[in-house]
């Protein structure tokens, strides 16, 4: 087994340990036999609806990737975009704060023949749009649903501010990287300083020159995408639709377990907040934070047995399904890369410009 596979399994084990530990601690009074008996009575059609919503979430994620990358890679098929999306989902779920998804997707895009600088730009713009839509849609949801969050749980005020603040800082930092070539170049040069301790000067210089070239293509592509307002608007629309469908998943789960007293908008409000906070947790998959906020919110309305059922089903559908299907995507070979790579490489062989401020 490779070192990378061992690390992935270790991260998955951490998530399982934290999740199981939280469940054992939080739901000590729930009878296990009663829990499993109740799980067998879950409405399969509502549960299928929850899984379908998750699939649509993945599908729209792939649509955004296809839309953003198509101008830089004319030959990219939607199948390739969907596969890359699922691989990104896999690494997002097993790394702290979803930091592994973007690098994994970049590797897959370069295998498709896309230049690393252009691929980085596509993924950065896509990620900025996603983060911005998370914040904007959360604000919209808060306008009409803040009374759901502020009722009975005093900790939520702090958690709302924390989650919102972190997302805003991330967006500002990403925009700075995407807009300022001078800042990005200096940042990369600073990050390269430790390499002098274990690499020869010639290798460090070559690496520095290579990265400078990639930064140029990165900012050229960022500038091109930033001026394409039709593309930006389409990506924002698809991402907004994607998020609202994703936020609705707990409603399907609650209907599946026979809970009819929680409306669709309340479920959306709760889930939007859970995602806003859990994604800034420094654990793989937001483990611990996700379970805590889910229990904190839905625990005000559900008994322990129903709450445990909802929590387990929610984690299976929104988290563990990404691991299963993402791992499957890793095992599937994409033959399209062999056909389009030579064409893309020919397009990217252009004279390198000097770095400007």
UniProtKB/TrEMBL annotation:
Subcellular location: Cell membrane
Listed GO MF terms: phosphatidylglycerol lysyltransferase activity
Keyword Kinase annotated: no
GO cellular component terms, A-Z: plasma membrane
Domain of life of the organism encoding this protein: Bacteria
Catalytic activity: L-lysyl-tRNA(Lys) + a 1,2-diacyl-sn-glycero-3-phospho-(1'-sn-glycerol) = a 1,2-diacyl-sn-glycero-3-phospho-1'-(3'-O-L-lysyl)-sn-glycerol + tRNA(Lys)
Bilayer topology: Multi-pass membrane protein
InterPro entries given in the database record: L-PG_synthase/AglD (IPR022791)
Pfam hit, one: LPG_synthase_TM
Residue spans crossing the bilayer: 9-25, 45-65, 127-150, 156-177, 316-332
Any one GO BP annotation for this protein: lipid metabolic process
First-level EC class: transferase
EC number: 2.3.2.3
Role noted for this protein: Catalyzes the transfer of a lysyl group from L-lysyl-tRNA(Lys) to membrane-bound phosphatidylglycerol (PG), which produces lysylphosphatidylglycerol (LPG), a major component of the bacterial membrane with a positive net charge. LPG synthesis contributes to bacterial virulence as it is involved in the resistance mechanism against cationic antimicrobial peptides (CAMP) produces by the host's immune system (defensins, cathelicidins) and by the competing microorganisms.
NCBIfam families: flippase-like domain
Family statement: Belongs to the LPG synthase family.
Record's protein name: Phosphatidylglycerol lysyltransferase
């Amino acid at each position: 087994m490779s070192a990378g596979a061992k690390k992935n399994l270790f991260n998955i084990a951490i998530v399982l340990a934290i999740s199981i530990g939280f469940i054992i601690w939080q739901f000590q009074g729930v009878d296990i036999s009663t829990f499993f008996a109740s799980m067998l009575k879950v409405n399969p059609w509502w549960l299928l609806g929850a899984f379908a919503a998750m699939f649509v979430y993945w599908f729209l994620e792939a649509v955004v990737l296809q839309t953003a990358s198509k101008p830089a890679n004319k030959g990219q098929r939607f199948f390739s975009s969907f596969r890359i999306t699922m691989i990104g989902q896999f690494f997002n779920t097993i790394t702290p704060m979803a930091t592994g998804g973007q690098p994994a997707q970049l590797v897959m895009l370069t295998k498709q023949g896309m230049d690393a600088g252009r691929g980085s730009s596509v993924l950065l713009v896509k990620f900025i749009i996603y983060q911005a839509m998370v914040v904007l849609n959360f604000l919209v949801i808060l306008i009409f649903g803040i009374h759901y969050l502020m009722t009975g749980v005093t900790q939520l005020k702090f958690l709302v501010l924390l989650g919102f603040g972190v997302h805003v800082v991330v967006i500002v930092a990403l925009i700075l990287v995407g807009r300022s070539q001078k800042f990005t170049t200096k940042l990369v040069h600073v990050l390269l300083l430790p390499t002098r301790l274990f690499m020869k000067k010639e290798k460090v210089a070559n690496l520095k020159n290579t990265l400078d070239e990639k930064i140029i293509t990165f900012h050229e592509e960022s500038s091109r995408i930033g001026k394409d307002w039709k593309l930006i608007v389409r990506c924002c629309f698809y991402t907004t639709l994607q998020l609202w469908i994703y936020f609705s998943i707990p409603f399907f789960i609650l209907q599946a377990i026979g809970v009819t007293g929680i409306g669709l908008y309340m479920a959306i409000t709760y889930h939007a907040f859970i995602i806003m906070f859990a994604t800034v947790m420094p654990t793989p998959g937001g483990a611990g934070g996700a379970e805590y906020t889910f229990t904190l919110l839905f625990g005000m309305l559900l008994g322990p047995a129903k709450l445990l059922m909802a929590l387990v089903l929610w984690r299976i559908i929104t988290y563990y399904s990404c691991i299963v299907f993402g791992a499957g995507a890793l095992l599937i070979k994409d033959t399209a890369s062999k056909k389009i790579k030579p064409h893309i490489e020919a397009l990217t062989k252009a004279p390198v410009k000097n770095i400007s401020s």
